[in-house]
Amino acid sequence: MTTSRVPLPAKPFETAERYIQLKKKYAPTSWYVMMSLISDMILMPIITIFFIFLCQADLMTVGMTALKSYQVWKEYTEYTSLRFDVQTMFLHCQTVGGPFIVTNNPAYMPYVFADAVQRVPVGMAKAPLGGRLDG
């Protein structure tokens, strides 16, 4: 039986940094920020398309709304992709017997996982006590 490996990020600390930046924006804790995201991603494009069909939209409004919506969706898809990368780093950290460093702020845990990826390359991990390390 062969196991397929999920590739780890090539630059784990840059991945962690970008994830933390985007998490602040796309995993909001307040309703106001959440409503602003829903407006930028869903409501404003729908309203703009409605005004285009009514022939009431001007070119500047359409352009600004389309650009804002594109940027927000692009960053959101990057954030969701980075969530999986951080999850992979987390699983790698557990596999190699980490974490090797600690942090007092849970927001910075991706750096802990990145440290484990940087510190112990794939294939260099030792088997945990009483267990085995497949792969």
Structure description:
- With 135 residues, the chain is an all-alpha fold.
- The protein has one domain (12-119).
- It is 64% helix and 0% strand.
- It contains four helices and no strands.
- It has helices spanning 12-26, 31-53, 59-95, 109-119.
- Helix 1 (12-26) crosses helix 3.
Write the layout of secondary structure elements.
Blueprint (H helix, E strand, L loop, with lengths): L11 H15 L4 H23 L5 H37 L13 H11 L16
Helix pairs in contact: 1-3, 1-4, 2-3, 3-4
Task: Please tag this protein with its features.
4 helices; single chain; elongated; mainly alpha; 135 residues
- Average pLDDT works out at 86
What count of structural domains? Answer: 1
Give the H and E element order: HHHH
Largest sheet: none
Taking Cα atoms only, what radius of gyration do you get, to the nearest Å? 21 Å
pLDDT below 50 for ≥5 consecutive residues: which ranges? Answer: none
Number of strands: 0
The coarse overall form would be elongated
